[in-house]
Specification:
By secondary structure, this protein is mostly helical. The chain has three domains: about 40 residues; about 90 residues, Receptor-associated Protein, CATH 1.20.81; about 230 residues, Receptor-associated Protein, CATH 1.20.81.30. The protein has 16 helices and three strands. α7 runs antiparallel to α11. It is flat. The N and C termini lie far apart (about 75 Å).
Length: about 400
């Protein structure tokens, strides 16, 4: 296992200044470094445990919000002629606990003579795209300009991630409420109503009987039911990559959703291309790195082919026209920009336009989801209500009771 700071995770129990106790997780080189970090936060370590490498989240990266803060602070400080080592010291105080040890180690490495991009790669704080941009900026002597562009890129990516989160949160809340209400009805209400109807001498429909038996079984085996749920959640955590892959494949073929996914992928791609080309990276090299951020198989395959044929001497405007995964208007804009020699501005414009397009399509998708979720709730809860109401209506019409 690497001994670089931030590659070991520790679970700790520590005493707070007011005498209370707190739990937490932090990255550190070793136990001594962990104790130093806790002391900076005015905490006294009582017990610490090393988190196994196989545990979920043990390879947690610095989140995008902290990365955005790093770029923003560096842009402000470096463009005001603050030395890089001092700028990194300020940055370490502005980021979260997960990123702080990495920034401190970067500062130590830069102070010892290492390059900024090499230090960032060593502590594994940024993705390869960001490191490539900073490496190019070091060659041109414009780290501050690169940091400013990357801060803009990170803010756009946060906005894109926020849209994706919104699309997931709303259906998740509605579905969770529906499931909880259904469980309550099938385990509490339905058995009580069913027994009352049977006590009145009426015969329950087969469907109602089946649901009532399921509810009684769940009530009598609560611990086993909870154990099954816990096992399912644990399996989902460990199989999350496969589950995510299936969900992504599904999202690329569903109407409305596939348009949102394509807008999201294209916005991410052009945002990265804008950041890299403005840092002086050649178009072929920028494509080689930017294609790596794409998850859409068709778009990724076509852009990879474009790069290969461009390196072999192909004409860019003809190659762009062959990428039919992108909208026609996008291809025409890129071709016009290539003719005028202004691809950098085109990438920047497309990144902004596609971010707005993603916002519009996300709003439409949410509007379309609302009736679909209402239908879902009716199918779940309405079915249970019918299982209760049908025998009651029959009992009433028969004059029983």
């Amino acid at each position: 296992m690497s001994t670089l700071p931030g590659n070991h995770r520790f679970l700790y129990l520590a005493a707070k200044p007011d005498g209370g106790r707190t739990f937490g997780v932090v990255r550190a080189r070793d136990g001594r470094h962990l104790a130093e970090q806790l002391r900076r936060d005015r905490l006294v370590p009582l017990k610490t445990w090393s988190v196994p490498a196989w545990a979920p989240g043990s390879e947690l990266k610095v989140n995008l919000k902290d990365q955005c803060e790093v770029h923003t602070q560096l842009a402000q400080l470096l463009n005001r002629a603050v030395p890089l080592v001092e700028a990194l010291e300020v940055v370490s105080s502005a980021v979260g606990k997960a990123a702080r040890p990495k920034i401190e180690r970067m500062r130590e490495m830069v102070a010892a003579g290492s390059g900024f991009a090499d230090s960032a790669k060593a502590v594994d704080i940024f993705d390869p795209v960001t490191i490539a941009v900073y490496r190019a900026a070091e060659r041109t002597g414009d780290l501050g300009g690169a940091a400013k562009q990357l801060a803009t890129t990170a803010r756009r990516q946060l906005a894109i991630a926020g849209k994706a989160g919104t699309l997931l949160i709303y259906p998740s809340i509605v579905m969770s409420i529906s499931v909880l209400v259904s469980i309550f009805m099938i385990t509490v209400i339905l058995p009580q109503v069913g027994k009352a109807i049977e006590g009145a001498g009426a015969k329950l429909p087969t469907f109602t009987k089946v649901l009532m038996e399921i509810g009684l079984f769940l009530r009598g085996n609560v611990l086993w039911a909870l154990l099954v749920v816990a096992v399912a959640i644990t399996a989902a955590v460990f199989a999350r990559r496969h589950i995510t892959a299936v969900i992504n494949s599904f999202s690329r073929v569903v109407p409305l959703l596939r348009e949102v996914v394509m807008a999201q992928e294209a916005a991410r791609f052009f945002t990265v291309m804008a950041a890299m080309t403005r840092s002086g990276i050649t178009l072929a090299d920028a494509l080689g790195v930017a294609v790596g951020v794409l998850g859409h198989p068709r778009l990724r395959s076509q852009l990879t082919s474009l790069r290969t044929r461009l390196i072999e001497g192909g004409v860019l405007r003809q190659l762009i026209d062959s990428v039919d995964a992108l909208p026609l208007a996008t291809r025409r804009l890129l071709i016009a920009a290539e003719r005028s020699g202004d691809l950098e501005s085109a990438f920047e414009t497309l990144a902004g336009d596609l971010a707005e397009e993603l916002d519009r399509r996300s709003t439409r998708l949410l509007a379309a989801l609302e009736p679909a979720l209402i239908i879902f709730m009716f199918l779940m809860i309405g079915t249970l209500l019918l299982a209760i109401m049908i025998p009651l209506i029959k009992l009433s019409s028969a004059g029983v009771g």
